[in-house]
Amino acid sequence: MSTKESSSSKDTGYTTLPLKWTPGKDLLRSNIPSDAYHVSQSEWSNETRSDVVYAANHNKNEEFPPVIIEIQYMVNQEFIYRLINYASNAFDRYKVSPVILVIVTNSFCSAEFQNQFTINENNTCLLEASCKLWAKKCVFLTPELVSTHFNDEDLNPMAALGFFVTKHNVNEMPEKNRTDPTMVLKT
């Protein structure tokens, strides 16, 4: 990572990434302007902490809501209440309902609990929670759904991300997907 900071990063306290790792230069964010988000404070006023929070560079922008990313081993009711709390905190801070991505590294507490979620219509490797009253969207990337995409001709970028985060080893991925651009970090 570069230690050189631009004048705008000195003013805001954000570190500047090397151009090749700049947001907006990857397949996952190709439709979001590179200057739309920054990593934000993840500790909330009630002293709880999200794993990662992205906030829009232009405050109170409905087009670019805050994004909360959580990495969770087991999803259960207690965790869902914690997500609702994070969403409420995000709304208090940004005055916009957040989008939430949960990367599930193991599973849901039960099949019955998992059945309360639906497959996302835009991306079939994501489950979606009913969240209309507390978040703009709340989706779950699960190892189970990720594995169903490995026979696809083109690897779904979210499936590649999910595999990498849950398995941590590209060698466990089917060989035809190992060179997928989402899985290869170019230095």
Overview of this protein structure:
- With 187 residues, this protein is of the alpha/beta class.
- The chain has one domain.
- 24% of the residues lie in helices and 20% in strands.
- The protein has helices at 7-12, 77-94, 111-114, 143-147, 157-167, and strands spanning 37-39, 52-56, 67-75, 99-108, 118-119, 126-128, 137-141.
- The chain has a seven-stranded mixed sheet with strand order 1-2-3-4-7-6-5.
- α2 links the parallel β3 and β4 (99-108).
- It starts with 6 loop residues before the first helix and ends in a 20-residue tail after the last helix.
- The model is unreliable at 1-29 (pLDDT under 50).
Characteristic terms for this protein:
single chain; 187 residues; alpha/beta; seven-stranded mixed β-sheet; 5 helices; 24% helix; globular; disordered N terminus
